[in-house]
Amino acid sequence: EEIDIIRQVSDMVDYIRKRSPGTVSFVTNTHGKSEILARVSAPLFDWVMENLLKNALDAMEGKGYIKVDLRDEKNSVIIDVTDTGKGISRQNIAKVFKPGFTTKKRGWGLGLSLSKRIISQYHKGEIFVKHSEPGKGTTFRIVLRK
Known about the structure:
By secondary structure, the protein is of the alpha+beta class. It is built from 4 helices and 7 strands. It is globular.
């Protein structure tokens, strides 16, 4: 259904903020927009956002900032989730969406593979690593078609 993606994302950011240490800052940038409409399944989209935000928190080990950038383009809605965590090595960027791949001591390595499936198959969009630099952080991008 068509929903306000700004409200959807903001609610999830608030949810994660309340469950994270005070040493992590959250910034949401909507480029002056108060509403951006997109066709999504709210529960599935929430799951993807929660997964990206929790991964970002894990990568930062309790301190830094997470920025969520939402842009309303002509044919798409673009959502970037950027963290100041440990980053992803070049060889691992190609593997992060593969089922079973994880760099964590605990975890099944299914979060990003399910996220990719939800965005690409169910929402007909894209999710990918836009940029990552070891020691500096990572940006994941979601592109939803209008």
